[in-house]
Amino acid sequence: MSYLLHLLIFFQIYAVVAMSLNLLIGYGGLLQVAHAAYFGVGAYTAALLWTKLGVGFIPGLLGAALMSSLLSLLVSLSAWRFRGDYFVMISLAVQVVLYSLMYNFMDITNGPYGITAIPKPVIMDSIFATQEATFAIYVVIVGMLAFILAAAKLSPFGLSLQAMRDDELAARSLGIPVRRLKVEAFMLASAMVGVAGGLYASYISYIDPTSFTLDESILMLSMVIVGGTGNVRGPLVGAAVLIAIPELLRFLSLPDTVAAHIRLLAYGLLLILMMHWRPQGLAGRYRFE
Amino acid sequence: MQILFNGLIQGALFALMGLAFSLVYSTTGVLHMALGAIYALAPYILLTALHIGLGWGVGLILAVGVAVFVGIFCEEVLHWPFLRRNAPAEVHLIGSLGMFLVLVQAIAILWGSDVQVLHNGVDAVYGYGDLRLTRGQMFSGFGVLIIIGAFFLWLQRTELGLQFRAMADNPTLLSLLGRDVRKLRRFVFGMSAGLAAFVALGSSYDTGFDPHGGLEAVLIGVVATIVGGRGSLAGAVLVGLLLGVIRSEVVWFTSARWEQAATFTILALVLFFRPQGLFGRTLRLEEKS
Amino acid sequence: MEAVAENLNETITLRATEDVLPWAVRTANLCLAFGGHQVLEGLNLTLQAGEAILLRGENGSGKTTLLNILSGLIRPDAGSVLLHLKGREIDVTGSSPERIARSGLGRLWQDIRLFPTMTALDNVLAASAELLDRTALAGITCWPLIRRQERVARERALHNLALVGMADRSDSSADKLSVGQMKRVALARLLQAEADFWLLDEPLAGLDQVSAEEILRLLERFNTDHGKTMLVVEHQHERMAPICGRMFFLANGHLQPERSV
Asked: Is there a smaller number of Cβ atoms within 10 Å at the N or the C end of chain A?
């Protein structure tokens, strides 16, 4: 078990999380705090499809993407009209509700006990059981997801999205279809983060609701804010920093339970510091202005 | 009947929480997420005070006092500096989320994540006809009544209350008029923290509390504010009360797992049919951008 | 919206022969009350295709409100707004701003409203009529096709920037431009969107003599050579009057025609 590979796999998963959230926040100006919930929905959907229905690896991931994006469709169709702060508050409600669904619906999700023994990828009858194999297949999958996100961001769709972010009213008065853009951005971002959730579930092989709370959503927000918004490499920097911090904290040799809290505290602190000194993040292009 | 009564007491606390959140939102436009952390903190201060032998009276005052301090701290460290730099709403929100994370994790580090209680054993119960109320319920119920009564009296009758109402109506105008907006804002943040602390203390008297209890509370505050209506403090109070009653009934008729869903359904319905909230005023389209 | 012929003068000739009604924008009995006060009352206005009219009025008389109704930001209490598009009459009362924009109505805002994080070129490109319907899926799957369309749109954008004299500043960030330059980019944006009916809210505001002259020349040119129908709200009416065919004064919710130039 290579520790470096372990970190790299996590980096890949979180890179997708960050890039998809960046599509929403950095390109679309659609701040929201429910990303961890969609991540969790993807994780649970994939895990259940794999364990309860014996579905294949890739179909499981596709199912995760579908479920997350359908849920986001429900939310975005209802909420697209709303102004920034209402939109965020609605996303807060979505986060809490989805979490409580994961926690309370024992018959489906097994509640706080979580789902165990999630299988490693099995593609065309070959089991990717080793860590190296997992890393390799993930590189391929994550590469495709990153390509999809980048293609979307650099297309006319991406330009319209940025126009909407900069000035929604001016954009609408030029004929830019704001409702469609918001819905599409959400569906795409949620689908991507849903797949990332599936990858996460398979790699860790055990999931429970505590990985998908508001704290985690804020953490994902940190990645994007710290790394930088509005361009392609910002989220990658953010994901790298997010992985690096717990590793640095290791040197302080704190007890495990406290370490987890210090890690989250550090992210919160980073958010505050970033807002004060560098709102565009370490490597970003778009400043909240 | 008992269910209704429990719902009313719960609703009273929700009403005060709604007021606390709406107070900050209506006057400063800030989504005070950190209020959830302040809510979580109050019972811990009381607990520590009890442990070191300061007694309930001093403990309560200390708990509220520390909460008020933290509330003003948020304003001084985050929202005032951001306001001075004309930062957009996203920056305030992200800062507040960061602060939420920092404070909640600090609580977890200092006191641990386990659920704690303020006192052991069953509390004194009083009977009135068919109704049973605990001492905690009496304290909460009367306390909320007095506080809300005093608040609205203050709002209507005093000079400070007048300035306050002016700020809720039109903050920029008020600052142009040269009134000491900074002092007013500190007051607002302090007061909302104090109110939230009271709610937390009332709630945690009969039940346990943990570092993450603030999330639910702030969500209630958010929903009460949105459903109550933009700029309507009384609206937030009334909706909070309603939420408490409805949730109690829902839990009684179905089960605890639907409690969250009830809140969310109410939010969704109101946003769909009356986006400006029950008592809010409609904005013209340009204002919405 | 369909692609318009590269040479816009061509289109004007076509339209003139197929025109049944010579009007472009029409309001019928427009009424709006706001804050207990009747802002617009039974307002009737007809804009002929290709004409430029000037609208004056006191502050608060409702000029901006009228523009907002025409743009689809506010719904009138009563009355209707009609556009004449390709020989057909469309009722756009209460339609969304997007739909009205796609029917050919464009607006120059009083505060200009360029997209501040984007370059001048991207600002214009974002308004491309032909790219409005490109979905995310299309952007991902039909990559080469989209690229080609983008290239065409980009050429058009550069052409439009050249028309307003901003070709050399196409890569400048929008927030680094002067007010005059921003207004010119905003006009290029309207050209790119292929808007035929332009609402101009104080186009000369905040400009020095030279820049104001430039904008005036451009507006005159777009009106006479390109046939853009214009409704101009402007305080500096003496400067504006020469290029406008008719003038109106908005007071008490009604339009009063003033002497024709």
From this structure: N
